[in-house]
Amino acid sequence: MTRPGDGGRRGRSDPTGGYYFGIYHWRRRLRALSVALVTGLVAVALRSTSRRPAVRCLSALAAVWAVSRFYRVGKRLSSPPPWVVERYKYDALAEALDLSGTERLLDVGCGTGRSTVALGSHLPPSATVLALDVFDDRVILGNGPALARRNGRLAGVDVVPVRGDASRLPIATGSQERITACRVLHDLPAERVAPALSELHRVCAPEGRVGILELPLTPDGVEDDPEHYWRERVLGAGFSIERLERVERSGEREPYIVLVAEPTLDG
Ligand SMILES: C[S@@+](CC[C@H](N)C(=O)[O-])C[C@H]1O[C@@H](n2cnc3c(N)ncnc32)[C@H](O)[C@@H]1O
Fold first, then answer.
1. How many CA atoms lie within 13 A of 203 on its CB side?
2. What pTM does this model have?
3. N or C: which end of the chain has fewer CB within 10 A?
4. Is residue 12 situated within a structural domain?
5. 3-class SS at 8?
6. Are 62 and 147 within one domain?
7. Ligand 1 mean position to 56 CA, how many Å?
8. Rounded distance from Cα 188 to ligand 1 centre (Å)
9. What is the CATH number of the domain that holds 138?
10. Which pLDDT does position 15 carry in this prediction?
11. Inter-residue contact 246 to 2 (CB < 8 Å)
């Protein structure tokens, strides 16, 4: 298993600051913060107005729960902070995929450009990254092509944003030598995973490769071991698997999954 570190980055230096990648999973996390806040306020109000020992005891417990929940969700909301690239996982993918000499990379589900910036630093300076996303704010607050382009510019990476859906890629068949999908497939509804993977297969050049970086998660409603699930889905889309690695996640028990796949002729 690869361990987190800041190694692997070549060529370009980070700007002293200025990246902004937006806030991930903001709806779910802000909702959880609001629930904790309201619970805490109600608990404090009850405790200060009631004389009944049972109510005072329960409201004290509720207040403790609310404070701890608020702290944990608040920490997640800024993890990683919106200005941090957190490169180690992308570096592991870039190395497994071998991006040296790649002049064009298609980064599907690029969002505000975190993966694009990190992967782009492994490409030759003349390279272009097609940064494709639906560019709405369902997952990331502030998601949009302008932010992806701006973050790319700060990193010295030529980013061309493309608005599109992973399961209907506006990209020519067999045209891409290297394709990445970082932390995006688990966000799709389960029934859209197979269409998205067959689109990656369709646009991949015959000698090309697809690199997938996934959290240890499956789409909503799917009960399966994530590594087994993603492996089977990728094979089912007509790829052979060249590499499957685990990348330790800082502060978490379950690792990232890095998967490099090649299209088979009869896929
Ligand atoms: C968790 S973010 C990952 C962003 C970036 N790749 C990274 O590693 O930080 C998932 C991204 O997938 C995008 N996305 C979700 N469904 C998509 C779809 N059907 N087609 C293309 N992009 C999609 C979201 O808009 C979001 O930007």
1. 23
2. 0.88
3. N
4. no
5. coil
6. no
7. 45
8. 9
9. 3.40.50.150
10. 54
11. yes
Helix (H) or strand (E) holding 36: helix 26-49
**pLDDT value at position 77?**
79
The two three-digit tokens of residue 134, written as one number: 């639906």
Mutate to test the pocket of ligand 1, among 85, 112, 139 (most ligand atoms within 8 A of CB): 139
In this prediction, residue 250 carries a pLDDT of 78
State the virtual CA torsion across 224, 226, 232, 237 in degrees, nearest 10.
Answer: 120
Tokens of 85: 């690239």
Question: In the chain, how many domains are there?
Answer: 2
Residue 106 carries which side chain, given as an amino acid letter?
L
Enumerate residue ranges in the chain where pLDDT < 70. 1-17, 265-267
Task: Name the token pair of 114.
Answer: 């975190």
Which pLDDT belongs to residue 8? 39
Residue 205 lies in a domain: yes
Number of the ligand 1 atom closest to the C-alpha atom of 136? 25
